[in-house]
Amino acid sequence: MTTRSNGRRLAALRTFFSFTAGSGLTGEDLLINIAGPKIGQALPKALSIAEVDALLTLPAGTTPLILRNHAMLHLLYATGIRVSELVGLPTNSCNLTSCHLRILGKGGKERMVPFNETTRDTIEEYLQRARQLILKGRQSPVLFVSNRGRAMSRGRFWQIIKEWAKAAGISATVSPHMLRHSFATHLLAGGADLRAVQMMLGHSDIATTQIYTHVDGSRLKSIHQRFHPRG
């Protein structure tokens, strides 16, 4: 059993014994002094730049759904937004003139996230050639619509990204969050400012963003060799 599973079971038992003590069924809370297992913070998994290129340049076709999926993948990697923010993105939150998104993130915090012209082109192609065909006369406030004319579920987009990754020859199990990890890792590896990446990701604590500075092993080795006196 994993450490996280043990932690969840202990939390459930704590709730139970706290209830029995509070209701007088037991004399005291039997678990009050038992510490939970320490859970280490695993490093996020990211794709290589070559793998991302293979995913985004996959010659999949020009059907409406393919154009939609292509635009979604481009936007996810270009901005690093959460999958929930992607599938629920309102059309009026995407400014194609200035190439930025207005994202309402966790806790109702708003942030502006830029994207590149290549991504803008994929979104424009989707809007011009695919969105209305998918909607079939229906109306929807979200940018990326499903066959039912409403927002796509996170689970369905997870399936799509796995299918595209397999077609691109990527052996790793790719999730939407892995593209978010890749966005942050590649920006920091290229020398991006940590605070700027924090703002784009919507992290309230910069310590969360700092995790990505430990992912690129080759960059860490280069820094060590450059600055350590015995490097």
**How many H/I helices?**
11
Kindly estimate the percentage of residues that lie in beta strands according to DSSP: 5-15%
Which radius of gyration do the C-alpha atoms yield? 22 Å
Annotated CATH homologous superfamily of the largest domain: Intergrase catalytic core
Q: Supply the CATH class of the largest domain.
A: Mainly Alpha
Structural domains: how many:
2
Strands in their spatial order, largest beta sheet: 1-2-3
CATH architectural group of the largest domain: Orthogonal Bundle
Structural class: mainly alpha
User: What is the mean pLDDT?
Assistant: 84
The number of strands is 3
Helix percentage: 40-55%
Largest sheet, described in full? Answer: 3 strands, antiparallel
CATH topology of the largest domain: hpI Integrase, Chain A
CA-CA gap between termini:
40 Å
Low-confidence stretches: none
Q: Give the H and E element order.
A: HHHHEEEHHHHHHH
Summarize the structure.
With 231 residues, the chain is mainly α.
Features:
hpI Integrase, Chain A; three-stranded antiparallel beta sheet; mainly alpha; 11 helices; 3 strands; 231 residues
Structure, described:
52% of the residues lie in helices and 5% in strands. The mean pLDDT is 84. With 231 residues, the chain is mostly helical. It starts with a helix and ends with a helix. It has helices at 3-22, 49-56, 64-79, 83-87, 117-129, 131-135, 154-167, 176-189, 194-201, 206-210, 217-227, and strands at residues 94-95, 100-104, 110-114. It folds into two domains: 1-40, no CATH class; 49-219, hpI Integrase, Chain A (Orthogonal Bundle).
